[in-house]
Specification:
Strand content: 15-25%
Number of strands: 14
Oligomer: single chain
Number of helices: 8
Largest sheet: 8 strands, mixed
Cofactor: Mg(2+); Mn(2+)
CATH class: Alpha Beta
Organism: Nonomuraea solani
Protein name: Nudix hydrolase domain-containing protein
GO molecular function: hydrolase activity, acting on acid anhydrides, in phosphorus-containing anhydrides; metal ion binding
Shape: globular
InterPro entries: NUDIX_hydrolase-like_dom_sf, NUDIX_hydrolase_dom, NUDT19
CATH topology: Nucleoside Triphosphate Pyrophosphohydrolase
Radius of gyration: 19 Å
CATH architecture: Alpha-Beta Complex
Mean pLDDT: 89
Length: 267
């Protein structure tokens, strides 16, 4: 049990939290999506250096659940919220919000939309100015996700998502998220684009190459991203990833003192 060494400031907070002197910040429910295309390759965004959380890190599309993501008016095709709740150990309302957040955030941060006119179809192109206007309205929260789908006559395709993992930010962090990880394939006809916002760079890369770049210090990966990419590097194709059996086990790294040094280890 070696773990990651903590910088001095975070190590000091870790000791306070572990001693019960400081209460942990509540974790916000969130969803993130590993977007895949043949190779297999994954889509990563580099968060701007000015961001308060994970600045400069390469991450998958994702973000917090909006209260409107739990709206039962969302048109739905695929496994039900109750079924997703069973998979992720969440109530039906939260499960609905997690799936909606996964699809919404993927569209906001990549331009890819996992929805279609019916349960067996997917939007073929989302690159027009009208789509961009809706994407920006979703980002600034002037448009709710259910209203967005309803106005366009679209159905959320929960069957295009695969459950992958469940990570909770360590209790020592000042910003914390309770995040369910999904995997999804880039739909035929759609393409990602540099949409800006919280990211200053986007890239498609093989999972193993991203891990090697992190080892060389060329890119920065948070532990959940590093672990997920390492897992994905074991698969030779997108179908292999989708066929993989995943048992969703909650992982919340914790700070422990090892030989006088505070380190972060997975639990």
């Amino acid at each position: 049990m070696t773990g990651l060494p903590l910088p001095a400031e975070l190590a000091a907070r870790a000791r306070e939290v572990n001693a019960g002197l400081v209460a942990p910040v509540p974790a916000r429910d969130a969803a993130t999506v590993v977007l895949l295309r043949p190779g297999p390759e994954v889509y990563l965004l580099r968060r701007k250096a000015t961001m308060a959380f994970a600045a400069g890190a390469y991450v998958f599309p994702g973000g917090s659940v909006d209260v409107r993501d739990t709206d039962q008016a969302v048109a739905w095709a695929g496994p039900s919220p109750a079924e997703w709740g069973t998979v992720f150990g969440a109530g039906e309302r939260l499960a609905r919000g997690l799936v909606c957040a996964a699809v919404r955030e993927t569209f906001e941060e990549s331009g890819v939309l996992l929805a279609g006119p019916g349960p067996g179809s997917v939007v073929a192109d989302t690159t027009g100015d009208d789509w961009e206007s809706d994407r920006l309205a979703l980002i600034d929260r002037s448009l709710g996700f259910a209203d967005f789908l309803a106005r366009r006559g679209l159905v959320l395709r929960s069957d295009l998502l695969k459950p992958w993992a469940h990570w909770i930010t360590p209790e020592i962090e000042l910003k914390r998220f309770d995040t369910r990880f999904f995997a999804a394939v880039l739909p035929d006809g759609q393409r990602t684009r540099d949409v800006g916002g919280e990211a200053d760079q986007v890239v498609w890369t093989r999972p193993g190459e991203a891990v090697e770049q992190a080892h060389r210090g060329e890119i920065f990966l948070m532990p959940p991203t590093y672990r997920t990419l390492s897992e994905l590097s074991a698969y030779d194709s997108v179908p292999d990833v989708l066929a993989a059996h995943r048992e969703i086990v909650t992982i919340m790294p914790r700070a422990v003192e090892i030989e006088g040094e505070m380190r972060l280890v997975n639990t």
